[in-house]
Design a protein that fits this description.
CATH superfamily of the largest domain: TolB, C-terminal domain
Strand order of the largest sheet: 31-32-33-34-35-36
Radius of gyration: 30 Å
Distance between the termini: 54 Å
CATH class of the largest domain: Mainly Beta
Helix content: 10-25%
CATH topology of the largest domain: Neuraminidase
Structural class: alpha+beta
C-alpha cells in the first residue's frame, strides 16, 4: 500500500493509507444515476426513437449543446490544466528547480521526475526512483530545493524508508547540472529520522531565514486519538514543526540547531522542535515577506484546522481537536494552547492541505493570503488578515480534485496538484466568466440533447446505450444517452470512471417514465443530466409537466409531484414522485465512486448491442468510445442481469448489490458502516459478518448478512422496509419486490454458520405459521392467528414480508397482514407499509419537510407526552424526561433549557449532527470478532474502553479485543427521527419537550 499522509477519509480502515487505486424497475437511487435502460418494441409519442444509432455507424457531430455554464452565479476563481500533456502517478509534491526552466514532481511510490516549464510539454523525464534504491515500502511525501540550488544542486526529500525498521527520514540528494537533471544514487545524506506511523506529515519548506522547516505527524493511526500520547510531549520529534540549519553541521548530526529555537534550553526537550501539538500537518506555507508560518493540520473525527505558528506555539492536539476539548486527561505541554485561526467541520472538509502564502502578481486580490485546499472535497480556500487584524477566510473554488500540493511559481502562477483524479497539475485563475446563469437551460427542450420531445428523439450525435444491471428506480423505466461535443471520443476506457477520460462538455442523460398499463403510453417523469465542465461533474434534474410536452429544471433542493402509477393492467394509484436534491446526487456521484457510475466496462460489456457484440462494441463502432477501450474484464468483476434465471443465483444477487449499492459500499466509499458490495470481492472480503451502528431492529444475533438466514440479516431487513432505517436511505421510496425475493433466496443459499432463526427452524410456532398460512381452506381465524404469531417478532414479520414480495400469498392475506401490522411497533410496521396504498398510509413527514409544516400546527402537551411514552417517536430509548442516569443523551429537561425557542428545537431534531455537544458524541468500537458497540464513551484506559449503549448498559471492552475505536462526526441521534410522525404528532412532541422547562418561549 502507498501511504498518503493526510487522508482522513481513508481512515475508516484504521490507517491513513490509500491503495494506488431488465426488467423495468430495480433498486432506485434517484441521484442522476447513469445506469439502467428500458426498451420497448412499440412506439408512443413519449418513447425514444432508436433510429439515431440503429446501425451503429459512426455518429454525426453533436453541435447543438446549450449546456454551458451553470444555473448559479460563477465562483470567483476557476482551475484549468496547466500542463495537459503530462500526468503523474499519485504525485505528492511540486517545485521549481531554481536556475532552470524545469519543474520537479515527487510521486508517492518513490519516483522523482522533471519536466519543462512549457504549457505544451508532452512528457516528464525521470530523475530517480528511490523505491528502486531503497526497496519496497517507500512512500515519498515531499521534496524541496536548497535555497542555493543553482550553486550546490541539493535536493531535500522526505520519505518513509524501510531500512532498519520502517521510519520517516529527510535526506539530501545531489542532482546533476544536466538537462534533464538526474539524481546521483550514491549522494544520499540522511539528515534526520523519526518513527513512522499512520500520520507522518512530511512537508519540507525553507524559510526566508534560510532554515529548513519540517512537519511531523503524531505517528499514530486514527484510533485511538494520538495513540502514542505524543502531541503535548516536546521530548520527541512527533506531532511538530521542526526547525534546523542544514547549512552548518552539528557535532553529532548533519545539521545544527538555531540558537533562537524555543526549547533549546528546556531540559529533555528536543531542541529541533519549533511548534507542537499537531496531529498530521501534511502541508504548510511560509510567508516569504515576514516569515509567518501557516499550518494545515488534519483533524480527527470532527474538525480540520488552520494554525498560525510561531516559535513555541502549542496547537493543542490531542487535548483539543481545534477548539473542542478531546483528551483532557493529557497534561498540557510547556506553553499554552493557541486556537486555530480557522477551522472547518468535517461536513465541509476532511483532509486540509496547506499551500503558499501568495504574493504573486497574477492574482493581486490574494496577496498575503494563505492558500489551502482539501484532499477529499477538492475545495480551495484562502485566509488572511483583514484591516482590523482579524483573520477572514473565503472559498475560492470548488473542484473535484484530490489535492496534494500547491505551488506559487516564480512568475506568480498558482498551481494545484491532483493526486489521482487525473494526476495532473492545474492552474488557479481569476474566473472572468460572465454570469450566464440566466441563460442556462431551464427546460429540457433548450438543452440541445434532443431533437424533439414528442416523440423523444435524441439530437444528431447523441447516442443511446444500455447497461447490464439497472437500478431500482421505484418502478420507473429508463433510457440512457451519452453526448460528446462535436466528434469527440471518450479517450480512455470507461472502466476508469475518471473525468479525464471524457472530453469537456460531455453529458449523460437518463430519461425516466411511468411504465405503460392497458396499452396506454408511458408518461415521462424526469430526465436526469450529468454534465462535465471545467473538469467538474455537475448533476441536474428536469421534471416533466403533466402534459408530457417539456421538463423544467428542478432546484437544488429537489421537488415532489403526484403521479398516477399503474397497478396491474387496469388499475392505478396516486404516488408521490421525489426528484432528488443536488446533494443527494453527489452522495453517489463523487470522486471515490468515479462520478460516472454506469458507463464502465463491466456494465457495458455484459449487455448485447442490437447490432452485434456488446454495448461497448456498439459505442466503439459509433466512435463514441475509442477502440482500445475494449479491455478484457476479470471474471470476478463481470456482471449479469440479476433477473436472468439462466445465470447463477450468486452472480445474480452479487450483481444486483453491485449495481445498487457499491457506489457507497466500497473501500473508500462514504458509507458509515464499513462493508463492501463490489462484485470483484469474495464473500469474505465483503466484511458483512458484523452488526451495524443503526441497530438490529429487534432481530436476535443480527449481522449485516447471516449466511443461511435472511431473517436475521440487517441487509435484507433494510431493503424490505419503508420509513426510518430503510436502505437506500435516500432516493428510493418504494420496495423492489423482485430484489427482496432475490436477496432472500441468495442469503438462504449460503452455508449456515450458526443456528437459524425461528422461521427457518422446523417445529417452531413461527415456522408452522409460515408453512400453513397459505394453505387452501384454512379458516380465517386460524390464518389470523398465524399472522399474529408471525408479527410477534421481527424475524417472523420479515419472513412473512418475504413471502408477500415473492407473490406466494394472495391479496387477501396481504391485506390482512398489512392491517394487523398497522398496530405493531415501528420495526415491524415499516415492513408492511409497502403493501398499503400511499393514499391510505398515515401522512407522515418523511425525511425532508418544511419546518413550517410542524411549527404551524396547534399542539397539545398531553398528546405529546403519550407519543414520547410510546415507541412511536423513539425518544425515550435515549432520553429520560429528567433523570441523567436513565438517559444516554441529554435529558429532555436539559434539551428544553438549551432550546427555548421552538424553531431552534425543531432544527436540532431535524439536523442533530449540525452541532454536537461533546458530552454526547457518539463512539463506535469494532471488536476483533466483528461486533460493533456504539454509544457514549464513559472511560478509556490502557486496559479497556467503557461504552454506555443506547440501552443504558455499560459495556467494558478489553483493549486486546478492540480492532478499531472511532468517534463519529455524526450525532448518536440519527437523522429522520420525525419521519414516521405526522405534522401534528411532531408538534405535540415538541410541545411536550418544551413544557418541561417553564421558561421556554412559545414563539416560533
Amino acid at each position: 500500500m502507498l501511504k498518503t499522509p493526510g487522508n482522513n477519509a481513508g481512515e475508516d480502515s484504521g490507517q491513513s493509507e490509500i491503495t494506488s487505486m431488465n426488467q423495468s424497475g430495480r433498486l432506485r437511487i434517484l441521484l442522476c444515476v447513469l445506469t439502467g435502460c428500458w426498451a420497448t418494441n412499440s412506439v408512443t409519442p413519449w418513447q425514444c426513437s432508436r433510429a439515431a444509432s440503429a446501425a451503429d455507424e459512426p455518429r454525426e457531430a453533436w453541435t447543438s449543446s446549450h449546456l454551458q455554464g451553470t444555473p448559479y452565479a460563477p465562483e470567483p476563481f476557476q482551475i484549468s490544466a496547466a500542463f495537459p500533456g503530462v500526468r503523474f502517478d499519485h504525485p505528492t509534491s511540486l517545485l521549481e528547480l531554481p536556475g532552470t526552466s524545469r519543474f520537479l514532481v515527487a510521486e508517492i511510490g518513490g519516483k522523482i521526475l522533471t519536466f519543462e516549464n512549457s504549457a505544451d510539454v508532452q512528457s516528464a523525464d525521470p530523475a530517480a526512483d528511490l523505491a528502486a534504491l531503497a526497496g519496497d515500502g517507500v512512500s515519498l511525501f515531499a521534496a524541496v530545493a536548497d535555497p542555493e540550488f543553482a550553486r550546490n544542486h541539493f535536493l531535500y526529500v522526505c520519505l518513509v524508508h524501510p531500512d532498519g525498521g520502517r521510519h520517516t527520514r529527510v535526506s539530501r540528494w545531489t542532482m546533476s547540472a544536466d538537462s534533464p537533471p538526474t539524481i546521483d544514487p550514491a549522494s544520499e545524506v540522511v539528515i534526520i529520522k523519526w518513527p513512522s506511523g499512520g500520520h507522518n506529515a512530511g512537508c519540507l519548506r525553507f524559510g526566508p531565514d534560510g532554515l529548513l522547516y519540517i512537519a511531523t505527524g503524531d505517528g499514530s493511526g486514527p484510533n485511538p486519538p494520538d495513540g502514542l500520547t505524543t502531541g503535548q510531549d516536546v521530548s520527541d520529534l512527533l506531532g511538530a514543526i521542526l526547525r534546523i540549519d542544514v547549512r552548518n553541521t552539528g557535532a553529532k548530526q548533519p545539521y545544527s540547531i538555531p540558537d533562537d529555537n524555543p526549547f533549546v534550553r528546556l531540559p529533555e526537550a528536543r531542541p529541533e522542535v519549533f511548534a507542537y501539538g499537531l496531529r498530521n500537518p501534511w502541508k504548510f506555507g511560509i510567508d516569504r515577506n515576514n516569515g509567518e508560518l501557516y499550518v494545515a493540520d488534519n483533524g480527527w473525527e470532527t474538525w480540520e484546522m488552520i494554525h498560525l505558528v510561531r516559535g513555541g506555539s502549542n496547537c493543542g492536539w490531542p487535548v483539543m481537536e481545534g477548539r473542542v476539548p478531546l483528551r483532557t486527561e493529557v497534561p498540557v505541554g510547556p506553553t499554552p494552547i493557541v486556537p486555530p485561526i480557522r477551522d472547518h467541520h468535517h461536513s465541509e472538509a476532511n483532509s486540509v492541505i496547506g499551500g503558499p502564502v501568495y504574493h504573486g502578481a497574477e492574482l493581486p486580490e490574494l496577496d498575503g493570503q494563505f492558500i489551502y485546499g482539501d484532499y477529499i472535497t477538492g475545495t480551495i480556500w484562502s485566509v488572511g488578515r483583514s484591516t482590523d487584524g482579524s483573520f477572514v477566510g473565503q472559498t475560492l473554488v470548488d473542484t473535484d480534485l484530490r489535492i496534494t500540493d500547491f505551488l506559487e511559481t516564480s512568475d506568480g502562477k498558482l498551481l494545484v496538484v491532483d493526486y489521482d483524479l487525473t494526476g495532473q497539475i492545474y492552474r488557479l485563475k481569476k474566473n472572468t466568466s460572465e454570469d450566464r446563469s440566466a441563460t442556462f437551460p431551464r427546460h429540457l427542450s433548450e438543452t440541445g440533447l434532443f431533437e424533439s420531445l414528442t416523440p423523444l428523439k435524441p439530437a444528431p450525435g447523441v447516442s443511446s446505450y444500455d447497461v447490464t444491471v439497472s437500478r431500482w428506480m421505484d418502478g420507473a423505466a429508463a433510457k440512457r444517452f451519452v453526448a460528446v461535443p462535436d466528434t469527440g471520443v471518450i479517450a480512455t476506457s470507461p472502466h476508469s470512471g475518471q473525468s479525464g477520460a471524457y472530453p469537456e462538455g460531455t453529458a449523460f442523460a437518463k430519461h425516466l417514465t411511468v411504465p405503460s398499463a392497458d396499452g396506454k403510453p408511458e408518461r415521462p417523469l424526469e430526465t436526469q443530466v450529468l454534465l462535465l465542465q471545467d473538469g467538474v461533474w455537475s448533476p441536474y434534474v428536469y421534471l416533466w409537466n403533466e402534459s408530457g410536452t417539456d421538463a423544467e429544471l428542478v432546484p437544488p433542493t429537489g421537488a415532489q409531484t403526484a403521479v398516477n402509477w399503474p397497478v396491474g393492467t387496469t388499475d392505478s394509484q396516486e404516488r408521490t414522485w421525489h426528484s432528488g436534491t443536488t446533494n443527494e446526487c453527489r452522495l453517489c456521484h463523487n470522486a471515490a465512486a468515479g462520478y460516472v457510475l454506469g458507463f464502465v466496462g463491466n456494465q457495458l460489456s455484459g449487455k448485447p448491442s442490437p447490432n452485434g457484440g456488446s454495448q461497448l462494441d456498439g459505442l466503439i463502432r459509433q466512435n463514441v468510445v475509442r477502440s482500445d477501450a475494449a479491455e478484457d474484464l476479470e471474471s470476478s468483476s463481470a456482471l449479469v442481469d440479476p433477473f436472468d434465471s439462466s445465470a447463477s443465483l450468486t452472480d445474480r444477487a452479487r450483481s444486483y448489490l453491485h449495481g445498487n449499492c457499491s457506489m457507497c459500499h466500497h473501500k473508500g466509499g462514504n458509507a458509515i458502516v464499513s462493508f463492501y458490495l463490489s462484485r470483484d470481492l469474495t464473500f469474505e472480503q465483503m466484511n458483512t459478518n458484523k452488526g451495524t451502528g443503526i441497530g438490529t431492529f429487534g432481530m436476535q444475533n443480527a449481522r449485516i448478512i447471516v449466511p443461511g438466514d435472511p431473517y436475521r440479516s440487517v441487509l435484507m431487513y433494510r431493503f424490505s422496509k419503508l420509513g426510518n432505517g430503510r436502505m437506500p436511505y435516500i432516493g428510493s421510496y418504494s420496495v423492489d419486490s423482485h430484489g427482496v425475493d432475490l436477496l432472500d433466496a441468495w442469503i438462504r443459499s449460503l452455508p449456515a454458520t450458526q443456528p437459524l432463526s425461528d422461521p427457518l427452524t422446523p417445529g417452531t410456532s413461527v415456522a408452522r405459521a409460515l408453512d400453513e398460512i397459505a394453505t387452501e381452506g384454512l379458516s380465517q381465524e386460524r390464518r389470523q392467528q398465524d399472522i399474529t404469531d408471525l408479527l410477534k417478532t421481527t424475524e417472523g414479520a420479515l419472513a412473512l414480508t418475504a413471502r408477500l414480495h415473492a407473490g406466494t400469498l394472495n391479496d387477501a392475506i396481504q391485506q390482512t397482514a398489512a392491517m394487523s401490522a398497522a398496530t405493531s411497533g415501528n420495526d415491524i410496521r415499516g415492513l408492511f407499509d409497502h403493501f398499503v396504498p400511499e393514499s391510505k398510509r398515515k401522512k407522515t413527514l418523511g425525511r425532508q419537510f418544511d419546518p413550517e409544516l410542524v411549527l404551524s400546527q396547534p399542539a397539545d402537551v398531553d398528546r405529546g407526552r403519550l407519543i414520547f411514552l410510546s415507541d412511536h417517536a423513539r425518544c425515550r430509548t435515549c432520553h429520560h424526561a429528567s433523570d441523567p442516569e436513565q438517559s444516554v443523551g441529554p435529558t429532555l429537561l436539559e434539551v428544553s433549557k438549551k432550546y427555548t425557542v421552538k424553531s431552534e428545537l425543531l432544527q436540532h431534531v431535524m439536523q442533530p449532527s449540525l452541532r454536537i455537544d461533546e458530552r454526547f458524541a457518539a463512539w463506535a468500537v469494532l471488536t476483533a470478532d466483528g461486533r460493533i458497540i456504539t454509544g457514549l464513551l464513559q472511560s478509556q484506559t490502557d486496559d479497556a474502553v467503557v461504552i454506555r449503549t443506547a440501552e443504558r448498559k455499560l459495556v467494558t471492552i478489553p483493549t486486546e479485543q478492540i480492532d478499531e475505536i472511532r468517534r463519529s462526526m455524526t450525532s448518536l441521534m440519527p437523522d429522520g427521527v420525525l419521519s414516521d410522525l405526522t405534522p401534528t404528532e411532531a408538534a405535540d412532541l415538541l410541545q411536550y419537550i418544551q413544557s418541561l422547562n417553564p421558561t421556554s418561549a412559545p414563539s416560533l
